[in-house]
Amino acid sequence: PKHTKLQPSSFLYFLTESYTMNFLVLISVICLASCKIIHNVNEYLYEPPKIDLTQDGSETILYVRLCESSSMNGAQTILNMTRYCYCQQSEAFDAKGESCSIPGPTLVMHDKTIINVTIVNEVNGSDIVYNGSSSKWNTYKDMDVTNLHVHGLHVSPKIDDVLVKIHPSQYPMNTHSYPYDIGYHYPGTFWYHAHHHGSTTWQVNMGLHGAISMNQDGDLISEKYEENILMFEWFYVIPSSICNPGNSRYCKVTSTKDASYSPRFQLTDNEEIKGGPNLAMCDVYCSFPQYERNASGYIYDVTTDLNMTNPSWNANETVYNTEDPDLLFYFVNGQLSPTINMTKGVFRRLRMINSLSNWYLQFQFPSECEWYLIATDGVYIGGKYMNYPLSSPSHDNQYIIAPGGRADFMVKCMTNGTYEIISTNDNSVDPSGTLEKIPTGERIWPEKVLFRLEVSDDASDDGSDELPESVPNKVKGTYIEDLSELNYTSPELETTCGCNYGDPSNDECNIEFMFITVNDTTFGAVNGKPFEILSPDYPHKSDALMLIKQEKAYEYIIDNNADTFPVAHVYHQHINPFQVQTNISSLGFIALETTWWDTLG
Hints:
Layout: E1 9-14, E2 35-40, E3 50-53, E4 59-73, E5 76-87, E6 100-101, E7 104-110, E8 113-121, E9 149-151, E10 175-182, E11 188-193, H1 200-205, E12 209-215, H2 220-224, E13 227-236, H3 240-243, E14 265-266, H4 281-287, H5 290-295, E15 319-320, E16 328-332, E17 339-343, E18 348-354, E19 361-364, E20 369-376, E21 379-380, E22 388-389, E23 398-401, E24 406-413, E25 417-423, E26 449-456, E27 493-494, E28 510-518, E29 521-526, E30 553-560, E31 571-572, E32 578-580, E33 596-597, E34 599-600
Parallel strand pairs: 2-4, 3-7, 4-8, 7-12, 13-18, 14-15, 17-26, 27-30, 28-30
Antiparallel strand pairs: 1-30, 1-32, 4-5, 5-6, 8-10, 9-11, 11-12, 13-16, 18-24, 19-23, 19-25, 20-21, 20-22, 20-24, 25-26, 28-29, 31-34, 32-33
């Protein structure tokens, strides 16, 4: 590989079912900032409440509200701010926010059911929504417009439609219903989050995300082992006294109106990769149009008792942190460095979700404990890589999860004590050099204590000292059947894709990320075209990158164009996971051959 370019890797995926639509009503609400969620450093792990949707006909409503959130170190305030949050009751019936949580409640689902999730949006905000022909289309916009994406679930794309717009509370169309007709579904770890184009990064980082546990009869692993779900989050603490002095809606002290805004608090001075994970949420907030901030019920109100890295910062200054910044924090389930209590000699399942939005999450696991990789992106690993030991030379007790990705681990510790799981940017585990091509500022900062294991004889684990003996079958003829034995003579394998952006001469099944410049403006692009949706109705056929057929397998080559795209971009595929056909990195550190993914970088 050269620069950030990964070696081209073949992905295969399968399309199987057609769907019968049935429509219900979905609602999303945002409340007043009267709820408060408080966590202290080094607490035992908090897990959000669970909503049981395992029975056919189950339904729930998630209300999007504003909650006050505090991270404390005793009497010291590390971070206090208003965040967006999912709640199980509206503000009218739950003024104290007792039904609210960050992350949102875990949705427990089961295959072969029809369920309904309703989102109610009561956030005050602007009702101006930009379409694909607008110059603001690929910018931060539509601050308080939201929707719901079930990340990794194999459901109808017409229902999991991320172009749905759930408007702010004071306007019509502020509710929407998602009726999921779940057929055969492989069990695993998934998640849900807001996904409106223009405000996804903002809303996900500010709290609109939660876990999904998909269940299936016969999944003995889920039945046998105690488990914890861990969702990772981040925040770069820029107080409102610097971001928007006086808790105003203006981000420059030299004028009362922001004619244009340039980010001030990026985490790198590398010109090639500014933006993305390097932007503090202060910068994202200030990048929304001024009238959207004026109309929003949200005001950036971050406070902290921490000493500022640079006390001379002011609202018009541009500051880059090229070293580990004191004000950059990583959270697990909303907590700083929480502790998981577990029994000596008994395996615990850890279901990890990288909800950091834009950051690659690389772990260094303590060698005093045994660590095994059992699933990637919600799909158990079978065959020769089943219960894959992370002590192998390919991993050296490390693991990396791309933004939006998931990984399930089994861990067992044989000696009482407390063990730290820390972040790392170590490249030595990957002799191919792929890891070192991920630019500084795209992997989380190293040497952060993410969470701890407290191992004792006193914990009450109901589990086993033995690893799983088998995984649920991947049924042939479904979206998850093994494709590793296909080759170019296989009748079900397609290697050409029709209608590549309407160009009949281009039938390659390639995905190439790049930057392009149009009218002196530079955009991220796929296969030479920036993202836009000009057709008004689903399935937006005229805007499709490719048109593919059901019940066929397709081979894709995914390529970061190092010449024009020096970013370690993630490939995420909704609805259908894909199976990697070759090791990515020389020993498979990034992905082992034959494993299944829906999010990979």
